[in-house]
Amino acid sequence: MGSIIETRNLSKSFKHFKAVTDLSFTINHGDIYGFLGQNGAGKSTTMRMLLGLIFPDSGSIYIDGEEFNNGRRHLLSKIGAIIERPDMYGYLSGWDNLKMFAALSDSTIKAARLHEVLEIVGLKGREQDKVKAYSQGMKQRLGIAIALVHKPDLLILDEPTNGLDPQGIAEMRALILSLSRDHGKTILISSHLLYEIEQVATSMIIIHKGKKVVEGKVNSLLNPDETFIEIDILPDDAIQHKIEGSEWKSMLRTAKHGSLTFKMNPERTPQLNSWLVGQGIGVTEIRSKHSLEAYFLSLTDDTVITNRAI
């Protein structure tokens, strides 16, 4: 379907601090695009550049194929965003907040559209309550309603699950999936809850110290054959010798006193377990460590990056 956002060689500095360096990535229509990086990696700076809140020192941003600059701010009508926690007036009702922000966005927005977005985000029936009585999850969903009200093609959500309890996180996850599946929205979502990104994202980028480390489809980057299987065993002095002559030798990564680590497809774990038991090795626990969190840390931990370069 083509790209809705494309950046080419974006760079941004604040005095002597290089926040973003030569950053290029593409978000296609229909993506749920995970934007990952440690605190200070440059995520918020990049999102602010996408929204025209700050401007890059160099590089270009394209929205639906048109270059975005000061003279083409009309392109921002294609985007709705929540950057950090949405600022709302607690003494006003959810309805009044939504109506006020809608008027700032587009004075032609009708009441029917306000009812529609409240239904989408699950706040129908609570719109007359004052926002100060809302839970944090309700405030986040009202913020998304405000971002949706002008019918944008792309939503930019900065840490939408921040501060939410487990129920609120699950509701936010379901809403994000519904916005993509049922309402055709493309979504750029940053989060420090990597498990949540793994549950919803179709594509992702990981940046580290303002630079792109990797970008691609989630199901391609998280290759099941790259899974680490950790196995706790009873001490066995002959373990190395037993594995040496087996098909599992090529998959073994570490063998420590009481533990083994294999790099392999987890579907073969039962077969490996049966082989270990057949060799008289006492297996006490098996854990799978292929996750977005493990992958993320392998790419953004400076020690790992240094070792990989060596």
Automatic annotation (TrEMBL):
GO molecular function annotation: ATP binding; ATP hydrolysis activity
ABC transporter domain boundaries: 5-234
Transmembrane segments: none
Gene3D superfamilies (UniProt xref): P-loop containing nucleotide triphosphate hydrolases
Keyword check for ATP-binding: yes
Similarity comment: family membership: Belongs to the ABC transporter superfamily.
PANTHER family in UniProt: ABC TRANSPORTER, ATP-BINDING PROTEIN
Protein name from the UniProt record: Bacitracin ABC transporter ATP-binding protein
Upper taxonomic lineage: Bacteria, Pseudomonadati, Bacteroidota, Chitinophagia, Chitinophagales
